[in-house]
C-alpha cells in the first residue's frame, strides 16, 4: 500500500495518482478532505493504526510514502472551544503527526519527498551554494538606506523577500510580494531605517532555468522570456518559450551536493544563464514541477509513480 500526502488542489499529485491507478498500484491519499478519523496506538503490542474516513490502516502496511505538501488532517471537534485550548489541541496533533512520520520511516517504508524538511532559509541556501562553487548574484542585506552606498551606482539591482512569499489581505485587497528593481538614485536621497532587506544585482540573462530534482534524478528546462519584467510570474505565457535543457555535469554535481547538505529529497531550483555562467537563485522544497515535466516532456509524474 502507498500513502500519498498532499493538498486537495495539487494537480501534480492528481497526475501521480492517475498513473498509480493505471499501474494498478494500491494507494490512499490524505488531504484536507481525506481525514484521519481515528488513531489507535498500543506501544506494548506494537500496534499503530489509523482510520482514514472510516477505513482502518496499519502504519506498517505502507511500503512507500510520497509527501508532496500540506500536513496530516484530523477529524475536528464540533463544539466551540477556547482559543487557548484550541492552540493546545493543535500542538498535540502536531506532535502526533511528527510521530506518525517518524514511525513510517522507522517501520521500513520508503519515504519520498520532504516529509520532515519542508522549509529552507533563503540566505543560508545562498551562502551554502556559494561555498559549493555556484555563481550567485552579488547579494546584500541592509536595514538602513544610508548603507545603500555599498552598492555600485553603475549596476542594476533587485529586491525580493528573504522568507517565502506570503499573500497579504488588507481592506479587501490582495497584495503579493514580487521581485522588483531598485531605484538607487531614489534610495540615495533617503536616510532612514527599514526592515532588513535582501538586495541582489540584476543578472543580464539569456534565459531562466527551472530545475526539478527527485532523489538523484535531475530535470531542467530553459525559459526564454520576451518581456522586460524581472519577475516571471508577471509575464503572460504567450511571451515565453520553453525548451528542455541538459545541464553541465558540474552543475548537476553541485545540485546533488546541495540537496544532500540541506537534507532534501526533492525540490525546484531557479537559476539564470548569462553569456558566461549559470547563476543560482533559490531552492524550493515544495516547488511546482509541472512546468518542468510538461514543457520538457519528461513525464515526471510517471517516473514518481513507478518508484512508488
From TrEMBL:
Domain of life: Bacteria
Name of the molecule in the record: ATP-GRASP peptide maturase, grasp-with-spasm system
Organism name: Chryseobacterium muglaense
Amino acid at each position: 500500500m502507498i500513502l500519498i500526502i498532499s493538498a486537495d488542489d495539487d494537480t501534480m499529485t492528481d497526475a501521480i495518482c492517475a498513473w498509480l491507478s493505471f499501474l494498478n498500484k494500491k494507494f490512499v491519499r490524505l488531504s484536507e478532505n481525506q481525514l484521519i478519523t481515528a488513531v489507535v496506538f498500543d506501544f506494548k503490542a506494537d500496534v499503530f493504526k489509523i482510520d482514514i474516513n472510516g477505513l482502518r490502516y496499519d502504519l506498517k502496511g505502507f511500503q512507500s510514502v510520497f509527501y508532496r505538501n500540506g500536513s496530516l488532517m484530523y477529524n475536528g471537534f464540533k463544539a466551540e472551544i477556547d482559543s487557548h485550548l484550541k492552540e493546545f489541541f493543535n500542538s498535540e496533533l502536531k506532535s502526533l503527526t511528527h510521530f506518525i512520520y517518524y514511525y513510517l520511516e522507522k517501520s521500513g517504508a520508503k519515504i519520498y519527498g520532504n516529509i520532515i524538511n519542508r522549509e529552507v532559509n533563503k540566505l543560508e541556501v545562498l551562502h551554502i551554494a556559494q561555498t559549493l562553487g555556484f555563481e550567485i548574484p552579488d547579494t546584500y542585506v541592509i536595514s538602513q538606506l544610508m548603507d545603500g552606498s555599498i552598492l555600485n551606482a553603475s549596476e542594476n539591482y533587485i529586491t525580493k523577500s528573504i522568507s517565502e512569499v506570503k499573500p497579504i489581505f488588507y481592506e479587501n485587497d490582495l497584495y503579493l510580494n514580487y521581485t522588483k528593481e531598485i531605484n538607487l538614485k531614489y534610495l540615495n536621497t533617503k536616510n532612514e531605517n527599514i526592515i532588513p532587506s535582501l538586495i541582489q544585482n540584476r543578472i543580464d540573462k539569456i534565459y531562466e532555468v527551472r530545475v526539478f530534482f527527485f532523489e538523484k534524478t535531475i530535470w531542467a528546462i530553459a525559459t526564454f522570456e520576451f518581456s522586460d519584467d524581472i519577475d516571471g510570474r508577471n509575464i503572460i505565457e504567450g511571451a515565453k518559450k520553453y525548451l528542455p535543457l541538459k545541464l553541465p555535469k558540474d552543475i548537476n554535481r553541485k545540485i546533488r551536493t546541495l540537496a544532500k547538505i540541506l537534507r532534501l529529497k526533492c525540490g525546484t531550483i531557479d537559476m539564470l544563464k548569462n553569456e558566461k555562467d549559470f547563476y543560482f537563485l533559490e531552492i524550493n522544497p515544495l516547488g511546482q514541477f509541472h512546468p518542468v515535466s510538461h514543457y520538457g516532456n519528461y513525464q515526471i509524474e510517471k517516473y514518481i509513480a513507478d518508484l512508488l
